[in-house]
Specification:
It contains twelve helices and ten strands. It is of the alpha/beta class. The longest helix has 16 residues.
């Protein structure tokens, strides 16, 4: 592994090998998502607790302070929306020159294994790896399922993660699953980061699944809605940070949440 890519990965993963990525890229297919109507306002108080931001170039340019020290993972796939016929019909939206110009630490692209656009999205990933590796830029694959949430089984997730890793992704973002999540992680030869999925009903639910996933081998999280859509986003972020980087138990993290909430 060349120095450049090592350097970029070292910014994303802390010395303990763990990470807390904060995705704010939802607008690329959802529009002005609740609590993310003004990204700058949402992001600012959460920066002390996250290790990287996952966002689009539009939000990066218009809402993020260029003097910020937090590294950026750039969302570079899209082309569909919630009102379209199929969320899986994505293309790469950002050229390599733009990626380099924005000086990001990594890029992220969705793959839709098992969909009508499986080959297209897997080739999006492969082609992006071919281009970005030449310049030491790591690619994170996002194992997306679109609107078909019933696909989030360990067997499907393990298949998607392994394929993404085989095609050259340096990191894979995937969903946590209650059954056999350890098998998903064990079958993937690159770091696995947990996605948040739909907003949980309670803070405790979020803390429980994150703690379980970390115990089963995930290196961190890429959680958005379960953080910034919470009425107390800073308290949630601080509690999650404790699980990821301080090995806090669910109870300890929940106590941190309650204390910070005050």
């Amino acid at each position: 592994m060349d120095w450049g890519i090592k350097n970029r990965l070292s910014k994303l993963f802390k010395s303990d090998g763990h990470c807390f990525f904060l995705p704010v890229d939802h607008g690329y297919f959802q529009g002005p998502t609740s609590c993310l109507e003004k990204p700058a306002k949402t992001i600012k108080p959460l920066l002390p607790y996250c290790d990287a931001l996952f966002c689009t170039r539009g939000v990066l340019r218009s809402c993020i302070d260029a003097a910020m020290d937090t590294p950026v993972i750039l969302r570079v796939s899209g082309g569909t929306s919630m009102v379209g016929s199929d969320l899986a019909n994505e293309a790469v939206t950002t050229c390599l020159e733009e990626i380099i110009r924005l000086n990001v630490s990594a890029v992220g692209v969705s793959v839709f294994v098992g969909s009508d656009y499986e080959k297209q999205t897997l080739l999006n990933l492969s082609n992006l790896v071919n281009e970005c590796e030449r310049y030491g830029i790591p690619v994170m694959a996002v194992t997306a399922v679109g609107k078909e949430t019933e696909k989030r089984t360990s067997r499907y997730l393990a298949l998607s993660c392994r394929i993404a890793a085989e095609l050259g992704a340096r990191v894979v973002k995937t969903y946590w699953c209650a059954k056999d999540f350890d098998k998903v992680v064990e079958g993937c030869p690159v770091p696995v980061v947990m996605a948040g999925g739909p907003k949980c009903e309670t803070e405790l639910e979020v803390l429980e699944f994150v703690h379980d996933g970390m115990q089963k081998g995930a290196v961190g999280i890429n959680l958005g809605r379960n953080v910034w859509q919470n009425p107390n986003p800073v308290a949630v972020a601080k509690a999650l940070h404790a699980i990821i980087h301080e090995k806090a138990s669910v109870k300890e993290a929940h106590d941190i949440f309650k204390e910070t909430k005050k």
